[in-house]
Amino acid sequence: MRTRTSSRICGQADDRPRSMLTRFAGACAIALAASTACGSGGSSSGSAPGVTDTEIKVAIIVPKTGPAAPTFDGFEQGARARFEEANATGGVHGRKIKVVVLDDQGDGAQQVVAARNAVQSEKVFGIVSASRVDTMFAYLKQNNVPVTGYPGQPPYALDRNVFGAYGAFAMNLAQTAYAQALKERGVTKAAVFSHNSPGAMNSARAFIQSAKQVGLPVAMRQFDIPLGSFDATAIAVRMKQLGIDGIYLPLLTQSNVSIMQAARQQGVKLKASYITYDPSAIPQGGKALEGVLSAPSGTVPLELDNDAVKQYKAAMAKYAPGFPAADNLFTAVGWLSADLFLHGLDLAGKSPTRQAFIDKLRQESNYTGRGLLVQPVSFRPGITPNGDPVKCVWLEQVEDGKYVPDDDKVCGELIKVQQ
Q1: Closest Cα to residue 60, out of 103, 19, 28, 89?
Q2: Which has fewest Cβ within 10 Å: 7, 107, 220, 374?
Q3: How many secondary structure helices (H) and strands (E) does the chain include?
Q4: Quick check: 216 and 179 in contact, CB under 8 A?
Q5: Cα-based distances in Å from 189 to 67, 182, 212, 218, 220
Q6: CA 21 from chain center: how many Å?
Q7: Of the candidates 108, 120, 106, 107, the residue with the CA atom closest to the CA atom of residue 50
Q8: 160 vs 113, 137, 146, 353, 357, CA distance in Å?
Q9: Pairing between strand 173-175 and 414-416?
Q10: Sheet containing strand 162-164, strands side by side
Q11: Which residues of the chain have pLDDT under 50?
């Protein structure tokens, strides 16, 4: 006697024999691939997940809570503003962008939860993201989900579906511009600090290699700096004992402030230091940040008075009213990440699919971010499978409590980092 199984075929209960169910399930799978017959079709155009006749659904994944949240503050607002600007002019090929925001808390496990929620529950077309962790990318690669965002982790160099807002992740590569800048300002003994995270550690190791290239000794290094504010007295005492006169800090904002304030309190005589660009850090750090160097991530200085910066700030004022930090590091990165996503959608055409988005954008060789990027970006395979990392930076120095840009950008060499 054949076993009967209660199941559902195309959403309806069925009590037919298992052998018949198998045949029906196969037929339904074919039907699903061809149309939206299995389930509620609604207004879906059927071209890709998250796409209807009138809108395209995109997730923003970013730390909104947790220690990393202050550093990535502004990313969501920048991305939203760029999407709103696009929507105000009709969207992309007649479809407007619908945004959902998910908090990864800067935590690896939570980022995977956020990504699965975006793809499985929210059914988004793609993702715009910035974070200190990179645990979601294997899942997104497996599902061929397009991602644009802050290129701070290896997937921005390796995964074909992932695109950095200002170029590829500098995986095992170092640009010499930062080390050269410290040396030219008289630094003779540098200290390098990092969080225990892929992006920060890569930046720290890259600086150490580039410092060796330009002849700048690194006399102190520590790769387990706490996330957020902490008591950095012991670190500062050690710097003073070693005669450190320059620091490289690719850290979260509050961690940078903690080290710089402790160095000042302990009387460490610094000739030059580099910290992660963040205008909000200046009032937090006060006098301890006077003279430090920074550079926006991949962009021209937002203190410039050129057309690209004016247009960006005007749009932020219009579409993100009440959010004053248009010159925040990650506000601009969020804006550019959304702009790049819109560019990929435009290239994908009137009936966009995830594959078309990825294939077309991977052929782009002259993306400029509407003039905000410090150098044009190619996403074609180059030094990394996803193109070349940025090698130019536009340095700024804190003077009288505000950033003052150098006269022009500087471009260093890209060199291999020894592991």
Answers
A1: 103
A2: 7
A3: 13, 18
A4: yes
A5: 30, 10, 12, 6, 8
A6: 46
A7: 120
A8: 22, 11, 9, 15, 11
A9: antiparallel
A10: 96-103, 55-62, 126-129, 147-149, 162-164
A11: 1-46
Residue 290: the pLDDT is: 95
Q: What confidence score (pLDDT) does residue 417 get?
A: 81
What pLDDT, on a 0 to 100 scale, did the predictor assign at position 70? 87
pLDDT of res. 113 = 98
Per-residue CA distances from 85 to 81, 90, 201 (Å)? 6, 9, 36
Mapped onto helix, strand or coil, the DSSP state of residue 156 is helix
DSSP-derived 3-state class of residue 291: coil
pLDDT value of position 419: 62
**C-alpha 400, offset from chain centre:** 30
CB 181 within 8 A of CB 410: yes
Q: Which of 157, 152, 146, 160 is nearest to 342 (CA)?
A: 146
CB burial readout 367-379, b (16+ within 10 A) else e: bebbebbbbebbb
CA of 245: how far to CAs of 183, 207, 209, 239, in Å? 10, 16, 18, 8
Q: What is the pLDDT of residue 325?
A: 61
Inter-residue contact 175 to 160 (CB < 8 Å): no
Q: What is the pLDDT of residue 350?
A: 95
Tell me how many degrees the CA angle 250-74-368 measures, rounded to the nearest 5.
80
End-to-end Cα spacing for the chain: 65
- All residues at 6 or more sequence positions from 282 whose CB lies less than 8 Å from its CB, including other chains: 289, 398, 401, 402, 403
Residue 204: count other Cβ atoms within 10 Å of its Cβ: 23
- Per DSSP, the residues of 34-70 read H-S-SS--TTB-SSSTTBBSSEEEEEEEE--SSTTTT
CA separation for the pair 341, 339 (Å, rounded): 5
Retrieve residue 346's tokens.
């435009």
CA distance 102 to 117: 8
| Token pair 């410039």 in the structure block, residue | 304
